């Protein structure tokens, strides 16, 4: 009886170590025809705790985003040291580096974004990407003024066009008002709608 138990414990221990995921550089991911989400690791989902990532990983994913669509990324994970990081690069070259992610959303427009993880110590890391057509929301117009133009996006997506010499369009997604992280849930386009060149966030 006792030897069997020891063997069982040993096997369990090994499989826990093996469960830490590995990944590779240069993944290229397109939206699937049936709009299924893309998960890493593929047996993980957002209702589970962040999965383990093995030490010394250096990985990248380029996600293409079709015209008229946006991609939404959520990451769950934490680095195990201060040298490691998660990084996103959007189509305008804006880089965001973090060491702790708790499924707060990032939004990316056409044509692509890149996700990178570089870690030394073992970490936790899982993510999900979905693609969706731009929401069909009413265009609101606002002038550029000394008074701030405020709209409430607590419950719904909004697109506002600010009229200046040329228009700037802001697509804002609902966010948590108590969390400044929500500020990044807005996409800015240099023109009259979301087909204009993407600028910044
Ligand atoms: C996660 O949980 C939510 C709320 O219970 C549920 O709607 C959703 O389908 C779950 N997602 C997955 C991938 O299981
Ligand atoms: C990261 O740096 C902070 C501040 O210097 C320190 O308190 C923390 O212990 C460091 N974390 C790790 C995992 O080394
Ligand atoms: C924004 O809308 C939400 C939901 O309708 C509401 O609870 C909140 O008070 C509104 N905030 C402001 C500043 O109007």
TrEMBL record:
InterPro entries: CUB-like_dom
Keywords, alphabetical: Signal
Signal peptide: 1-19
Pfam families given in the database record: CUB_2
Residue ranges of domain CUB-like in the record: 20-135
Domain of life: Eukaryota
Protein name from the UniProt record: CUB-like domain-containing protein
């Amino acid at each position: 009886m006792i030897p069997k138990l020891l063997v069982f414990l040993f096997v369990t221990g090994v499989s826990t170590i093996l469960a830490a995921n590995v990944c590779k550089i240069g993944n290229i991911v397109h939206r699937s025809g049936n709009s299924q989400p893309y998960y890493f690791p593929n047996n993980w989902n957002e209702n589970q705790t962040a999965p383990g990532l093995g030490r010394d990983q250096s990985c990248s994913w380029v996600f293409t985003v079709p015209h008229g669509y946006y991609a939404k990324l959520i990451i769950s994970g934490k680095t195990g040291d201060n040298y490691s990081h998660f990084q996103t690069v959007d189509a305008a070259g804006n880089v965001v580096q973090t060491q702790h992610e708790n499924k707060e959303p990032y939004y990316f427009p056409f044509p692509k974004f890149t996700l990178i993880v570089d870690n030394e110590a073992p970490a936790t890391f899982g993510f999900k990407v979905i693609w969706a057509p731009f929401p069909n929301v009413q265009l609101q117009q606002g002038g550029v003024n000394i008074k701030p133009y405020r709209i409430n996006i607590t419950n719904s997506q909004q697109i506002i066009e600010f009229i200046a010499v040329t228009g700037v369009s802001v697509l804002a997604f609902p966010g948590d008002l108590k969390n400044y992280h929500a500020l990044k849930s807005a996409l800015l386009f240099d023109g009259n709608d979301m087909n204009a060149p993407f600028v910044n966030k």
